[in-house]
Amino acid sequence: MEDRGGNDVPASIPSGEQMVWADVSPLIAAACNDLHDGELIHGENFNLFAAMSALEIMDPKMDSGMERNGFHSIEEAIENGAAPIPLSLDRTVDVQRCIDVMDHLLSCEATWHRGHSLAQTVFSCIYLLRIERTSTHPLLHSYCRIMRSTCDVVITAVSDARTHEEEDFFTTACSLPLKGDGDEKCLSLLNSVEETLSRQLRACKAQASRKKLCDDIGSLQTYPDLEEGYCRAVLCRLRFRKHFYHALVCMRKPQGRGLELAKKHVMSCLSELGSMSKSVEFLRSNAGGPSDGEIECRTTASGKQPFGFDANINSRLSAPTPPRAIQILSWKQAIEFFEKLLNDLDAIFSLPLDLSLENILQFLVQFQKSQPDLVARAHLQLLLVQDGKLYGKYPFHVVISRALVLPEGTSDQAFQENEFVVQLGQLTINLIKILCTNNAWQRRKLGKILQDWGVISIQLELAFRREFDEMFKVSADEILFTRLSKRLLVWAEEKTYWIASRFLLLGFQLELYSPKEYCMVYWYMYVIFVNLLEKMQMRISYPVDDWRSRCVMKRMIIVKKVFIFFVLVVKLSINALSRIILPKTFCIPLFLQYVNKREHDGNIGYMFKTFTFQLARRKGKKKRDLAKDVGSESGVCASSSCMLLQCYVYISEGLTMMLAALHNERQIFQISSPFNSEHERFIQHFELLQRANVPPHISYHLFMESTTHNVVKHNYFREVQRILASLRGSFSGDSTKLLELHQLEQVIEHNRIALSVIDKVGASDPSLDIRFEFQHHPFFPTVPFKIFEKIHFFWLKRNGSFAFQGFYFFNIILANACYNYCSLSMIVNFYRTAIHIAEGFCGNFFFFFEKLYLFDEIALFSIAQCQKEMLDKTLHKKVAIAISYNVTCWVTCSILPSY
Amino acid sequence: MEGETASDPIADGSPPVSRMRKLLFRRMLVGVKDGRFFLGSFHCIDKQGNIILQDAVEYRSIRRSPQSPMEQRCLGIILIPAACRSSCHVDCSINEQMSLLSISR
Question: Peptide bond preceding A86: is omega within 30 degrees of 0, i.e. cis?
Fold first, then answer.
């Protein structure tokens, strides 16, 4: 190998005309000898930065073309017998090896779907690269053909969906033989092989019953005893391929017409996967492969190394970028991967084809929770958006008009041609496409499109104002049109806030926030949710009745005249007042700003309302029953989704308040980094939202202003509990919503208690060890329970009375047992010990009522929890009695002092 | 031949260094130990003999046999460490070749 270059340059590399290749090695040696350390010979255009990015040859991590003692080319590999056909002259071994090839190809395919290059995964198979060679081996040939066609179908789907930008390697198939003559016949080939095999399988069964051997030419291999097992193993692999291919093709049928059929094929695929898993035992026992320990990471069911694969043979086909190390998934992982993929596809098929836009967005969010892979997401997107129409059926102006519930009499033509509707349709298409990408990419893109939505909202608002000003002199028909732009505006704004909320929530899934930033994140979430709720309620409360709306418009015109007069008076008086009153009084600048902004805004009734609302919020006297308020106003009962949103508002607000109080009181969760300040982090997190002006007039200073308090005055979590209880009924049929409610309840329950403990002990208590965990809900954390142990013992030290201690031990153990979710028997044992201790100490515990009631909430909660479990299993009577005795004690404890 | 160039190495340098400098931007063909060749314009060399080529093309033989045909692909800017360099040629006229050879001896 060494010095092959030597002095002779290969003839195939030509020198210039009338030039020769002169050996300069001696000159180089001499020159290097004369150079000083660190000195370079270079031209004037030398750039150190460019030089740093040079690919280093013969560095295994950078040089993809490096020779790794493998074959130089496919031809050479074939000549050296790396991929023999047939795979062995012994027909049994031939079948075994053929199955190994199939299994390894499946693992390669799964690895490819995970984002590795096709050349290094599926096309590391030499049989697949030279498919014509396999034509004498029908089994292998049919499998390779359908494999190649499947890859082609998948690549087409992913590139059509244009989701591949995120998974960079997926569709790179440069110079790979993806298509060839006769690929369209792959199914008929496969079917004929399958037919032969199933006939053989039937024959085997018949033979087994007759106990008679007959040497059939159609047999798969030479041992009659093994025939049935091999037939089954091969058949399930072939059938899986067939159904998978069918499912992929059916899914591409326009307007979701093939979904029914695709669903059936996916079901068959899943059952074939099951049979494949079952074939492991048989294959392994006959293969004589490695021991069980090693087998887990093997890429084939039999555990043997497959024939005909060379991962490096294609390395020269890949781009000259540094090669990626690829770990092919094990066969077991590949099976799991395909199970997940098929289940994700199945979820797509169960999507009804007449969903409203709202429901589609919800479905997308729900679908993304399981983090589906690229192929499933690409297919979902292709199903939803076809030819610029929803499901290929409904143009997007129809989708929007449905979402708006347009008043009767609006001309369809006019609506369709409205430039805003066209633009909004385009934005909606983009939104759906973005929601089909992976989480990280999705968040990035959502942040970017927020600006587009912001811009269109501003345009709509301008259009609406213009129309409203002209409204004094126009006919009723045009009023209708005006109302259309207002509706569009509210709808667009609602969607904008929805995108913003999704943007912020995705940050949790991607683990972008540190606990120190939770306060600002929840604060921003709170602001976004409040705005979203506001818009949602406006949309819902819009009167659908046409006649009523005209009356409202007339009334509004009168109100507007009055209001303009009012604004003038106020402006004048404020100007006069501002000389007297200190400029710091925030109401006045706020009001002026508000008046200036909304002066020409049409919806005056709303304007008064929001103004009072904002003012009240600024003063800290937040309007609490917003949902109820609007409900009574418009006669439209607050819908359940509004109420759920209201829960989010309260939870985020509650968490913000809690964090802010902790922050201010205890200096924990404070950002003290030498690299950036809190303000800078605020900008880093919310820059995209701020740039899109979502929501308007929100700044870091406002955040600082609203989180200066030390005490949490209002228990928001209790509010949420109230709402959640009433929500349960309205979601009774919807399992995902019920799960969400359950999760929220858990969060609330834990945080409410944590809050009251922190409140009573005082946040400055050094024994508090406050951490946040997302064990109950993906976005809202809970304060885990270990803190209570510490509190109790700290309390003990301070109030070291024996009886008190006894009673306390009882409850500490109880609380810990419950909260740390010990097994039931452990709780019972804890109880026994606790009762003994308590009996010893608590002779006179009434004396300590006054102090004990502090922890009523913890105790009640823990007891309730424990009781539930106990009663379920009807355990120890004494324990049950003790519990109820304890409950009465606690109740008395908590009631007595208040008298 | 050595030591005298310390006063102003960049301007003059020893005769080999200045001759080497004249080769900058010329077509250079470097063979490496695994049998591949890289053809590109000579961009830079350091004391250790590591060479940077610009607009490099990789040539590799398809088979193990010495007379096998070559296939090629473009790589851009590459660094060839001295340790793996097995040959180095420059594209030049016959006259120039003579002078280069005479110097190296």
Answer: yes
